[in-house]
TrEMBL record:
Residues 16-319 form the NADP-dependent oxidoreductase domain. GO terms for molecular function: oxidoreductase activity. Pfam families: Aldo_ket_red (PF00248). GO terms for cellular component: cytosol. Keywords: Oxidoreductase. It comes from the Bacteria. This is Aryl-alcohol dehydrogenase-like predicted oxidoreductase.
Amino acid sequence: MDYRRLGASGLKVPALSFGAGTFGGSGPLFGAWGNSDAKEARRLVDICLEAGVNLFDTADVYSNGASEEVLGAAVKGRRDAVLISTKTSLPMGDGPDDAGSSRSRLIKAVEDALKRLGTDYIDLLQLHAFDAATPIEEVLSTLDSLLRAGKLRYVGVSNFSGWQVMKSLGLADRHGYPRYVAHQVYYSLVGRDYEWELMPLGLDQGVGALVWSPLGWGRLTGKVRRGEPLPEKSRLHDTASFGPPVEDDQLYRVVDALDAIAGETGKTVPQIAINWLLQRPTVASVIIGARNEEQLRQNLGAVGWSLTSDQMKKLDAASEVTAPYPYFPYRRQEAFARLSPPAV
């Protein structure tokens, strides 16, 4: 397993990490993903550790805390061998302090997560969404206190816009608060919006990407193809409305290219889609999920080899879409291109 520095931090994370959204799954979204109990989860953790995958990602909102509980049980007795990443800020109830990143909410959320995980520290805490109602200085000072207390090791964010990340980093530098070193983002061959602003920001500011849904919300599994109906057992029947939308034409262009490269390499469509991400700038780790051992072992096959430059170019071309203003001039016009860094 390849290990990479997480942003500008000293923390090294595996190229592939495991997403525990399938642990203890319940409800219309997480129940469709999977519902591994502690015994099943422990077996999946065993396989991950054997392969060198030691970063496990979860969130308090995943099945209302059940994912954290099952993950905690699955890593019990080997806490020092794993890195735990969790997230908070999304609503955990209907009360006024059950959502957001206020001082009171963050302190309580961290204490609750520690109990569910059965640990006394979290390796990486990420804010699951930007809280526009709480001053950024309050958020950062609270995270600083939690770091100084030893309850957190590193901090990051998820699903932030460029200005939200940059303003937070600027205030962190001004006041001497800890900087965000990770941004957990949606990024895939059918969702390349991350490249327009967040990737250049990550390169400039030392913020590493942890990629969620690398298979385009289940569309790049190799089971969705042009001219064929959606498989009867596909979870997209129940979960498509929860995830990022994809135009059919774009999807099938990408799938056709993936199929062609699968024929050349002997690799599976998911393995190729993940390997493409691993060669993209700022990507520190790609979060893979699995409902069972077979799925996990297949996804683990995405490392240990690399797509050729020609294959990367084919996938780049098949997945490219016109960027929105103000990003498109930098790609289309020579005058703008002269002011821009080399394309990534």
